[in-house]
Each structure stands twice: as structure tokens, then as C-alpha cells.
Specification:
This protein is an all-alpha fold. Helices cover about 80% and strands about 0% of the residues. Helix 1 packs antiparallel against helix 2 (about 35-55). It is elongated.
Amino acid sequence: MDRTDLKEKLVTIGITAAVFLPLRLFVSQYVSDHWLGNLGIATAISIALIVLVKKGKMGRIGTMFRNQITKTMWSKSAKVIICTLVLFMAYFGTTILLIDRGNTIYYDDKQILADGMADRRLDADEISRLSGPHTDDVLLVSSIQHLEYVFSISYAMLNDATHGWLANLHLIMFIEQMEALWLLWVFRKMFKPAQMVAA
């Protein structure tokens, strides 16, 4: 990788991050709480970006964007990128689910722990009031259920401490991974090496 290629990669990543992440944060905070509204606006900008790059209306930045997407989509690193996006999607999605479980199924236990920590009186009597997870007889399954219980309550308490920003940010990042996968598929269909040579 030469310096020009590295520079193009950094510019492309920087512009993409500078447009999409702040936009999602703004929309989810001030325009639409529902994730579909967030996805709709981000997708509209993605489609506009694709059309502008395809028609050559973005000048040098569009050329850099097209070059980097084409190189990435038709290189060996494409599989690594897709696997990474799927793993991040799984992480962000799991965290959202755990926060939801901490606020629903384990809500009473979360409140006992939160109140005890706030009043600095978390002792054996308080802990004995916890219901705990519903566990299975199989040791491995039971261990997973205990982990899920601990993470659910921990993430839900962190989310409360951040006034919902933890869940909001994870939802935005989950959507970003979905959209990145969609964009990779679209760019793979639209920008092929043969088209680049012809251009």
C-alpha cells in the first residue's frame, strides 16, 4: 500500500464517519426515537451518495470513494470486512437485548441493586432479596444463564446511568453495521473493476 492509497483510505473513512455517525446521533436524539426513522434518513443519504459518485458529481472525493470501494470490494479483505461487520452487529444487537432484559425480566433485581448502591447499604440482606435468573439443571446452560443475568442487569444499570445513551448508541451502531453490509452489496453490484477501467 503506497502513501496515496493510504491517504485515500483515511479520507474516505473520515468523511463517511463524519457524515453518518453525527447524523444518526442527531436524528435519533431530536427527530425520531424509532430506529426505522433513523434507518430511513441514513439510507436516503447513502442512496444520494451512490448516485452522486456514480454520476461523477463529487469530484476528487467521489473518485477516491469509488477507487477505495472498488479495491475493497474486489480484494481478499472483503470477507474480513463482512465477518467483522457481522460480529459487531451481533455484539451491538446482543447488548440491546441484554439492556431490554435488564429493564423487563430482571427489573426488580436491577432496582434492588441500584437502590442499594445509591444508598450505600448493599449488604447480605439486600442481596438475599434478589430473585436471580431462572436456571436450567445442565451446568453449561446454567452458567450461560447466570452470565446473561449479570450482563443484563449491569448493562441496564449503565444505560440508566447514561440516561438511555448506551442503548441509543448501540442501536445506532447496530444500524450502521446493517447499512454498511447493504452498502457493500450495492457497491459490489454497481462498481466493478471493469467499470473503473472503462472510466
